[in-house]
């Protein structure tokens, strides 16, 4: 008998197959039992009819506890009443692993309880749908950058110097030296761009941020493209094409997951239409001030309510351009006509999901960069290798970082970022 997975069921209508699965839920009467089955690929229903399987199999099926693992045999048929469209008419059941008192029952549970049981919570249909969207974004990322001629380069995780804010570093020992967990691969990706032209990385990054919000993780995954011979305006075009590609890929390949999550697909379609709007930081401050946000002055960084308001003035992701130099890292290139702002942009997602991309054109002049490093209180020695890039054939270059979990949270329409990564690391949580 052919062993298949649930997501292959559509190819086996009318055939007898076997499937390894878990019992997600169950209901039964005296004559018929309905098993909600899951196997990691999808969820669907198994029907056990007493008069067809006989009393022994029926009693066994009827007595299965939630999350018992089974090998189920039966015939696939169409099921027009379910979202999935297919079901299995069961002829035999073999128990593989019993399960007793599974803690996550179909009733409602509190967030902390679910977080304590994250290793089991991942089995639920909503979490399954979110992880499918995460997987699709990863797949589409490789596809997009390969198609565009980028090379995947892996920057180190253990580093000797800071790439972003030095207050948010995780310290660790590196034999006799001090080291940090990477906050961003950017500086290494700049070296890679000088070696390979167009490059992108995808890896974990760590920030000891004391932020407890629905947008912050301590450990998150970032995609960081870096492009030689490219200015900021050209980089913005790559960014919007990439994000539109991610959304389109999810629309094309994750229809079932979007249905489970009840995500509005018409809204998502809108996010594939280019270009995305652009607004300067100066105009964003004005917009906020005109709309009752009196607390924001030129020079301040934006908080979530500000980003949410700015985003709500547009129906697509929006770029905020050219932030004040004083609130951005040392490596950004100053605006050619103004020395108080830099050539950078943040992409803010619609619907209140906040910043999903941060990027900039990089300072390429040796003397300016060296001065900026000192001004930020960093030591030139630590960045000697980085300064070398400006000594041997420096070129205009730009890059950006997309936070994978921010993108997953937004595209899947999930309320909190903790559900967009399998095992979230949060302020006060490293279990499980
Ligand atoms: O804006 P950030 O700090 O930019 C950089 O790290 C640059 N070095 C990237 C580059 O130019 N190569 O971070 C980039 C993105 C943010 O826009 C956000 O999506 C995500 O990373 N991010 C976080 N995601 C989850 N939790 C956090 N604590 C995050 N901090 C940043
Ligand atoms: Mg940022």
CATH architecture of the largest domain: 2-Layer Sandwich
Low-pLDDT regions: none
Shape: elongated
Number of helices: 14
Strand order of the largest sheet: 7-11-12-17-16-15-14-13
What is the residue-mean pLDDT, rounded to a whole number?
96
Q: How much is the radius of gyration in Å? A: 26 Å
Report the oligomer.
Answer: single chain
Quote the CATH topology of the largest domain.
BirA Bifunctional Protein, domain 2
The CATH class assignment of the largest domain is Alpha Beta
Summary tags:
432 residues; alpha+beta; OB fold (Dihydrolipoamide Acetyltransferase, E2P); BirA Bifunctional Protein, domain 2; 2 domains; eight-stranded mixed sheet; five-stranded mixed beta barrel; binds 4-amino-1,4-dioxobutan-2-aminium adenosine-5'-monophosphate; binds magnesium ion; Aa-tRNA-synt_II; cytoplasm; Asp/Asn-tRNA-synth_IIb; aminoacyl-trna synthetase
